[in-house]
Amino acid sequence: MAGIGIRDVVKRYGDTKVIHGVSIDVADGEFIVIVGPSGCGKSTLLRMVAGLEEITGGEVAIDGRVVNRLEPKDRNIAMVFQNYALYPHMSVYDNMAYGLKIAGLSKDAIRERVDKAARMLQLEPYLDRKPRQLSGGQRQRVAMGRCIVREPAAFLFDEPLSNLDAKLRVQMRLEIKQLQRSLGTTALYVTHDQVEAMTLADRLVVMNGGVAEQIDTPMNVYLHPATTFVAGFIGSPAMNFMPGRLGGDGRAITLDTGAPLRALPEPIVGHGGEKPVTIGVRPEHLALVGQPEAELTLRARVVETLGADTLVHGVLLDKDAAIVPVAGEGGEVLAARLPGNVTVREGDTLPLRVAEGALHVFDRETGRRLADV
Amino acid sequence: MVENRPFLTVLRHVVLLAGVAIVLFPVWVAFVASTHPQPTLLSGVAPLWPGDRLVENYSQLLSAGMAQAGGTPVGLMLFNSFVMALLIATGKIAVSLISAFAIVYFRFPFRMIAFWIIFLTLMLPVEVRILPTFEVVADLGMLNSYAGLTIPLIASATATFLFRQFYLTVPDQLAEAARMDGAGPMRFFFDILVPLSRTNIAAIFVIMFLFGWNQYLWPLLVTTDESFTTIVMGIYRMVNVSDEQPQWHLVMATATLALLPPVAVVLVMQRLFVKGLVETEK
Ligand SMILES: Nc1ncnc2c1ncn2[C@@H]1O[C@H](COP(=O)(O)OP(=O)(O)O)[C@@H](O)[C@H]1O
Ligand SMILES: [Mg+2]
């Protein structure tokens, strides 16, 4: 068991740069999830760690040893592929045993390890079957068994659950987590699904366009997103964004309409005077309040009743009840997640207040976070 | 079709039976002719039912052959043909499996050029290059040998192309998984690719065995020694005996015998083939 060091790793295909220098330090036994939209380079990064893709620049170290030039089999890692990549003509037993046979283990040692893994994964009744005679979840387990028997320093997963139906995905997610915990093996897990990412990760790596935008615990990523991209990607429904300004004192936050929101307790260090900012608020951090305390006023356009919650999509109003254009994901519309017991009708005007510390201020030019109030 | 109308069912069977009859009738006539003495066949009316000379005709052929056509025993001819067809079929498969493997799984300079050159040889069957090929085989001293009979026929663009197409459908991740498991290229080839190609191999074996079995011009050219006569050559020689009536009963018996090994190969391989198709792997 060992940590993984990814240092300034760069990947180029010809002239196209796909990974722009990513650094991640994975501690021994840690579960790291790399999450990001499709095409952002997650698989490429993982495959460079696996040794299936050449590393253009930077270094990958496993257990303190730089492995850039090592074949996958010499890196002491195991990988679960998206479509499992089980050998179709081999039995479940042989699928798991194949790597060990090549490694030259004795028959008895192989049997012992495979039996142990099969017991752990409840695959014992299926050892003689061919992969095609198994359900999706069972195939998934075989793919994991193939990794476990190798007793590697780290597991690599590339979207292992995306071929399963929603219910099975939740179940296998739990199984993967439990298994990783009980074995204590370092894991690097790639997914585009933010729920999977949040639930599995000790730490999240949010990637965008070949760059790691933020590396932190799921809760920190959620509470203190480092960029507007991270803020919009993590969380559902997505965060609301509104154009605003940071005052010349580096403290006052106003909406572009002129409506003051709230002031930062301390000026932002090196704020450089007045500047345009993007203000982000999660729908679940908006609460219905009395008119005097309201920071934002919403006119409900669409109301979705979800039982536990009521999701209100509406437009932002200024103090003269005129509609203020905002640049959110959903165009002009902001979302608010209110408790299920409030009754809201379409056309209602809602005075809302942002929870303490849940107002995120981003530099509009760079997209970087300036403060959370 | 789930339709179930009695009239259509009957019609279907009638059409199928008619087809079977059309295909089988000449075979039946050949077999019947092989069981009669020569005079019956020269009388002008072809018999439709077996005669009484089955055992005599066949045992004469298998042991002594036909005196007028060199007297090579048909048993030996069958053996020669079988060895030739087998060597050609297995040789073609072995060479094609490996060259397709090289083309699909390795990045080497001029890879696509290599592929297209192989592909172009489709336009150069033995018949086209027969003189230069003969020259080469003769210079190498391979006349009158199984090597001379088979090696020039082994290179096969068709089979290489078919295996290439199959390899392209094998998911890349399978090769990567094998690589993670520590399998080198040759291990991957023998442990995974070849077993997965099983059904393709069976199909190509059938086709290539028949191709080898039916060779006529090339064996005629490279063998002068009677002991290398193949069955197809033998039949032709029996039909064209000079200054005499062809011994049709023996010719037909030889033809019937010549039919059996290919039929056996098709039957045996078809099982594997269908089995492979039913339990779709991949
Ligand atoms: N072999 C390749 N040649 C050229 N570009 C590639 C190759 N493989 C991946 N890419 C590009 O690299 C980018 C990242 O791909 P990938 O890592 O598969 O994304 P993800 O797994 O995050 O969806 C994509 O834009 C893709 O087009
Ligand atoms: Mg991917």
Automatic annotation (TrEMBL), chain A:
Gene Ontology cellular component terms for the protein in this record: ATP-binding cassette (ABC) transporter complex, substrate-binding subunit-containing
SMART domains in UniProt: AAA (SM00382)
Region forming the signal peptide: none
Domain ABC transporter, chain residue ranges per copy: 4-234
Sorted UniProt keywords: ATP-binding, Cell inner membrane, Cell membrane, Membrane, Nucleotide-binding, Sugar transport, Translocase, Transport
Protein topology in the membrane: Peripheral membrane protein
Biological processes annotated in GO: carbohydrate transport; glycerol-3-phosphate transmembrane transport; glycerophosphodiester transmembrane transport
Annotated localization: Cell inner membrane
Pfam families per record: ABC_tran (PF00005), OB_MalK (PF17912)
Molecular function, one GO term: ABC-type transporter activity
NCBIfam families linked: PRK11650.1
Family according to the record: Belongs to the ABC transporter superfamily.
The protein, known as: Sn-glycerol-3-phosphate import ATP-binding protein UgpC
Taxonomic lineage: Bacteria, Pseudomonadati, Pseudomonadota, Alphaproteobacteria, Hyphomicrobiales
TrEMBL record, chain B:
Keywords: Cell inner membrane, Cell membrane, Membrane, Transmembrane, Transmembrane helix, Transport
GO cellular component: plasma membrane
Membrane topology category: Multi-pass membrane protein
Residue intervals of the ABC transmembrane type-1 domain: 78-269
Regions crossing the membrane: 14-33, 82-106, 113-134, 146-167, 188-210, 248-269
Top-level taxon of the source organism: Bacteria
Keyword Transmembrane helix: yes
Cellular localization per UniProt: Cell inner membrane; Cell membrane
Pfam family, one: BPD_transp_1
Subunit-structure text: The complex is composed of two ATP-binding proteins (UgpC), two transmembrane proteins (UgpA and UgpE) and a solute-binding protein (UgpB).
Name of this protein: sn-glycerol-3-phosphate transport system permease protein UgpE
Source organism (scientific name): Salinarimonas ramus
Origin organism lineage: Bacteria, Pseudomonadati, Pseudomonadota, Alphaproteobacteria, Hyphomicrobiales
Gene: ugpEc
